Amino acid sequence: MGERILVVLLLVLNYLLVAEGEQADGDLTSLLSLMDTLKNTPPNWVGSDPCDSWDGINCKNSRVTSITLSSTGLVGQLSGDLGSLSELETLDLSYNKDLTGPLPQSIGDLKKLTTLILVGCSFKGPIPDSIGNLQELLFLSLNSNSFSGPIPHSIGNLSKLYWLDLADNQLQGNIPVSSGDISGSGLDKLHHAKHFHLGKNSLSGSIPPQLFSSEMALIHVLLESNQLTGNIPTTLGLVQSLEVVRLDSNSLSGTVPQNINNLTNIQDLFLSNNKLSGSLPNLTGMNALCNLDMSNNSFKPLDFPGWFSTLKSLTTFFSFHGRKMENTQLQGQVPTSLFRIINLQTVVLKDNKINGTLDIGSSYSNHLRLVDLETNSIDSFQQNDVPNVKIILKDNPLCQENGGVESYCSSYQPTVSYSTPLNHCQPATCSSERISSPNCICAYPYTGTLAFRSPSFSDLDNKTYYSMLEEGLMQSFKSHFLPVDSVSLSQPIQDSTKYLKMNLQVFPSGQDHFNRTGTLSIGFLLSNQTFKPPKGFGPFYFLADKYEYFGSSGLTESSKSSNIGIIIGAAVGGLVLLLLLLLSGLYAFRQKKRAEKAIDQSNPFRRWDTVESKSETPQLKEARMFSFEELKRYTKNFSQDNDIGSGGFGKVYKGTLPNGKLIAIKRAQKESMQGKIEFKAEIELLSRVHHKNLVSLLGFCFARGEQMLVYEYVQNGSLKDALLGKSGIELDWIRRLKIALGTARGLAYLHELVNPPIIHRDIKSNNILLDDRLNAKVADFGLSKSMVDSEKDHVTTQVKGTMGYLDPEYYMSQQLTEKSDVYSFGVLMLELISAKRPLARGKYIVKEVRNALDKTKELYGLHEFVDPAIGLTSTLIGFDKFVDMSMKCVEDSGSDRPKMSIVVTEIENILKSGGTNPIDESPSISSGFEEVSRGSSSHPYNSNDTFDLSAGLPYPKVDPM
Questions:
Q1: DSSP-derived secondary structure for 886-898
Q2: Average pLDDT over residues 776-801
Q3: How far apart are CA 810 and CA 938, in angstroms?
Q4: Which DSSP category does 750 fall into?
Q5: Residue 349 and residue 334: Cα distance in Å, rounded?
Q6: Which of 40, 191, 58 is nearest to 115 (CA)?
Q7: DSSP structure string for 413-480
Q8: Contact 131, 153 (CB under 8 A)
Q9: Fewest beta carbons less than 10 Å away: which of 74, 597, 708, 729?
Q10: What is the pLDDT of residues 613-670, one digit of tens each?
């Protein structure tokens, strides 16, 4: 029995060792890239299996699904490779203040992401539009960073979004709604969202009426401390689910909508510090209202409204600090009934015209603590027994008459002092940086600041609220089985934005410090709002401090002594395990050698980097094999700044060689990688073609599970961008003829001078690049096919290509010939004439030109097709012959189409007839032309619109007539 167990153990250990040596998947590569760009990643991020107990990493089926690294002290910027974690569902990097730089566009590639939390970091720059691609996103929290620019309209695409928090950034511009965007996206489309937290930014413009509707499920709308103007939209009254509305500290004007009293569930309403005018709305019926602040506006003067006393839930009444210079104060006598509201705590009515006698009455609320009527016109005070209530009547006639000697004639300076009491014990004397917990145990607590954005209470001295909060925190920690002994709250304050803030300390259980798993779990529980505060505290956020005490030990001397036996036992067990590992290692080594011999012939990349394997390395001419580390260095860790495009294959990065030469690196994503033999064959194919009108392959990389091709960098982008005016390059008729000639020469070389011939299979304007002298270079050989595979004049293969350029005969027969490239080139010629996309709005350019063609008319009757940018005032040399050749190239039957060498000759003759030497290169263009925009979907190395027709995509019907 023991021998069987040993054999099984050896086999298992052998499997693990071999697996570790072979594993190099995309998730590992992405995490290694993250480690390269960040400092202070967890120290146990070692080995080749991130799913094997890496702190902050969770996996399913060996794929990374969760990264939670809050409060770890990360330093640096996020790598664009983050987008390659295709199974990632949760990303929480909160509370890392030195995590900076832009949020990479590749964040939009995380299509399975449900939770994105980056609270309390230092990210900057605009929020990328690609965030709208995260269709599964439920929770988006980017608050307390330095993001700038507008709120992307694309967030409106996140139909499942529940929580949106972009507060405390530097966001600008209007609140985006669908009517202001060509795509029809905006925040008004988020019908399932319950939280719009957008306060403390620099948002401007009016609040769009379209933002609110009866279809919304909102409970929190927080827009405080922005630069919003205009009216409060009446549509706000349609969202009857609302509980908290903060519109304070803006520049809103106009009247408060009368239908605001439809919001019968609202608990906190802040409209203060605006320019609101007109009459006060009647708030009768808003029986859930606890906190009302309408001060510092420009309302009409009015007598004290009686409906105030009907708000039975009112606890804090900050309303109506008047504006003396505008004569907008409340007037009349404060009714005694106001103070009978059962939960009332605070009444602040400074700077008004309240007069008569102040009478709080004998049956006032048991919770009442403050009545501040400073600077009014009160001339008498009915002094009943109100021992627990602070009365402020400074700068009223009453105080001026009595000389201000009464206690109620002095200013009010609130003082708040609270700290969680000890739990019936004496505080411990702690050494180093340890702190005594409420249970009098010395430890290193996890610390931070809790901030509540709209608390419904104002009595900050009331210990009951803090006790409720402490109890709620402990229940949440315990219910999630976190190693927490106790919590401590201290130093509550209310800042200028009326946020309630306090210090939080969370103490570990069982030892004097938390391990990383403990801090990550606590941070995530607070960052993703798993903890629900007690009623009255309202929406909150948490900003944690960095935790640095993982190396500490909380063991006492007695506990150390009691563990000696355990340590000795562990040592003996370790020796036995070491012996087993040595035996299994020898066994694994022998098995691995046998496996290497068995797979050697089927893995042509196994020893590409060794001298002995030159016969297996692709036979390259003027190309080289780059290491992963080299390309990483040339692209600055594949940074977002060097990301110049993407497509179905993966991403393209611009790099700079040590000699200053620019390169373009196509980096395949995992799902688009070829087999090793196919990749080797493609490299050998590309390395044997050399022509000035073809983009040169400089080398490749096959390391750490990567497939990368290195090309020359062609600086003026694609012909497509030039035709559409995106690159700033003006193409006159002669330049277009030369571009057509250069492309035709490149194709003629592939078809007729390369042995065996090569069919490009994806000729289109996006794959024709323009160098610094506007010479055309054919690019992107990802779909190319060599005729070495056939003894006939065609290759039978699955249909692949790009909609609009694809040869119909190839589509129908699946027989690929050089004439398929000729057809695509004919479409390209028509595109050079018109600058129109081959297939747009159901119209196919070949059919449209064929139907409009009239050789009896000037320009063959094609005036409406000629690109105005060419300039019709000048003669278009050889236009008729160019059109004739174009139409020959797009004949339905391949046998009726000319060879590319014939096309080359015809375009050369057209140029000669106009007095232009077709051998001359185009003149240099101004350096003022812009490069192709980084990240543009139409980048020359991009092939997003390339498709595989074997998957069933339709080809447009072509009318042969």
A1: HHHHT-SSGGGSP
A2: 74
A3: 26
A4: I
A5: 10
A6: 58
A7: ------BPPPSSSPPP---TT-EE-TTS-EE--EEEEEEESS-S---TT-HHHHHHHHHHHHHHHHHT
A8: no
A9: 597
A10: 444 444 455 568 888 889 999 998 888 888 887 765 678 899 998 888 899 998 887 6
Residue 405 makes CB contacts below 8 A (sequence gap 6+) with none
Please pick, among 27, 545, 762, 945, the residue that the annotation labels catalytic: 762
Which of 303, 307, 271 shows the shortest CA–CA distance to 286?
A: 307
Could you read off the pLDDT of 286-312 as tens digits, one per residue?
988 888 888 888 888 777 777 887 888
Residues 6+ apart with CB under 8 A from 205: 173, 174, 175, 228, 229, 230
Does position 20 have pLDDT exceeding 80, yes or no? no
CATH topology of domain 611-712: Phosphorylase Kinase; domain 1 (3.30.200)
Chain centroid to Cα 679, Å, comes to 32
User: How many Cα neighbours within 13 Å face the side chain of 45?
Assistant: 22
The label of the residue with tokens 């499997």 reads 15
As a whole number of angstroms, the distance between CA 734 and CA 546 comes to: 64
Give the highest mean pLDDT range of 31-45, 190-204, 836-850: 190-204
Q: What residue ranges in 824-957 does DSSP mark as E strands?
A: 839-840, 843-844, 946-948
**Average pLDDT over every residue of 771-777:** 91
The tokens describing 380, both together, are 């008498």
Give the fold, CATH level 3, of 54-190: 3.80.10
Give the list of residues 6+ apart from residue 539 with CB closer than 8 angstroms, or none: 195, 197, 220, 222, 244, 452, 453, 454
Name the β-bridge partners of 244. 220, 268
How do 442-443 and 484-494 pair as beta strands? Answer: unpaired
Sketch the domain layout of the chain as residue ranges: 54-190, 230-412, 435-550, 611-712, 730-951
Pick the CATH number of 435-550 from 3.30.310, 3.30.1490, 3.30.70, 2.40.50: 3.30.70
Element (H, E) at 681: helix 676-687
Q: For 21, phi and psi rounded to 5 degrees?
A: -75, -25
Residue 937 has pLDDT above 50, yes or no: no
d(CA 649, CA 668) in angstroms, rounded, equals: 5
Q: What would the two tokens of residue 872 be?
A: 């019709």
Q: Quickly list DSSP for 183-246.
A: T---GGG-TT--EEE--SSEEEEE--GGG--TT---SEEE--SSEEESPPPGGGGG-TT--EEE
Cβ pair 656, 662 in contact under 8 A: yes
What is the DSSP code (8-state) at residue 576? H
| Domain at 730-951, CATH class | mainly alpha
Q: Is the CATH code 3.80.10.10 the one for domain 230-412? A: yes
Domain 54-190 matches domain 435-550 at the CATH topology level? no
- Backbone φ and ψ for 43, nearest 5 degrees, come out as -65, -20
Residue 789 among the catalytic residues: no
In this predicted model, what pLDDT tens digit does every residue of 809-834 receive, in sequence order?
Answer: 888 888 889 999 999 999 999 999 99
Please enumerate in sequence order all residues whose Cβ is within 8 A of that of 770, keeping only pairs 6 or more positions apart, or say none.
Answer: 714, 716, 717, 718, 719, 722, 729, 739, 776, 777
Measured CA to CA, the distance from residue 952 to residue 486 in angstroms comes to: 61
CB 434 within 8 Å of CB 444:
yes
Average pLDDT over residues 949-955: 35
Whether the ω angle into residue 50 lies within 30 degrees of 0, i.e. cis, is no
Q: Which helix (H) or strand (E) holds 9?
A: helix 2-22
**For position 930, what pLDDT does the model report?**
30
